[in-house]
């Protein structure tokens, strides 16, 4: 199983200019005082994983640009690149950039469509539409309070085991009949 090695950020939320976060280990813990930017790291990751703007704590993509929260964006562009390493230590760089209010997607420096981007992310187990398994601040309680069936559905969707559910039920029924 691969891991996230580093995040390269430019003008995204609390980071002005080009900045590097990492290198990361396979397990990481981020600590810091209130308002220091912990959740912004999760926003940056979610953004690079193709997350929709509504889940990034802003109204418009352009609000993600450094300084935009006080009406003084430092640029009209921002980007976040995730450096992913597989077990053979081969690196893939998934990068999402914004210009104004539209996004561009890049894999290893090559411009790709959103469909291709999410397809390649799925190959390493990141499912954009399943919200990437990130549990955001305030959502722990919401997940804990879900009806058990709903919670199971959520985990099945994240782990992608849901697509095998019908086949599983079919085989189970056949076994019970035999
Ligand atoms: P808490 O412990 O309270 O959850 P946190 O460490 O998660 O705090 P974040 O929410 O990640 O903090 O960061 C908040 C900070 O991000 C604020 O200080 C805010 O000024 C800054 N910020 C948010 N958007 C932008 C932006 N577009 N440009 C610059 N700074 C920004
Ligand atoms: Mg926070």
Automatic annotation (TrEMBL):
It is found in: Chromosome; Nucleus. It comes from the Eukaryota. Belongs to the SMC family. SMC1 subfamily. This is Structural maintenance of chromosomes protein. The chain holds residues 1 to 178 of 1187 of the full protein.
């Amino acid at each position: 199983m691969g891991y996230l090695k580093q995040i390269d950020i430019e003008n995204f939320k609390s980071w002005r200019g080009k900045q590097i976060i990492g290198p990361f280990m396979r397990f990481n813990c981020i600590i810091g005082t209130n308002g220091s930017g912990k959740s912004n790291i999760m926003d940056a990751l979610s953004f690079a994983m193709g997350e929709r703007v509504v889940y990034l704590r802003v109204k418009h993509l352009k609000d993600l640009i450094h300084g935009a929260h006080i009406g003084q964006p430092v640029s009209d562009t921002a980007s976040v690149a995730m450096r992913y390493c597989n077990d053979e230590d081969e690196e893939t760089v998934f990068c999402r950039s914004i210009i104004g209010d539209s996004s561009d997607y890049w894999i290893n420096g090559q411009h790709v469509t959103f469909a291709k981007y999410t397809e390649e992310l799925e190959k390493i187990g990141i499912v954009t539409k399943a919200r990437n398994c990130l549990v955001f601040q305030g959502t722990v309680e919401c997940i804990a309070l879900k009806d058990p069936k709903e919670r199971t559905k959520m985990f099945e969707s994240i782990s992608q085991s849901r697509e095998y559910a019908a086949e599983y039920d079919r085989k189970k029924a056949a076994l019970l009949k035999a």
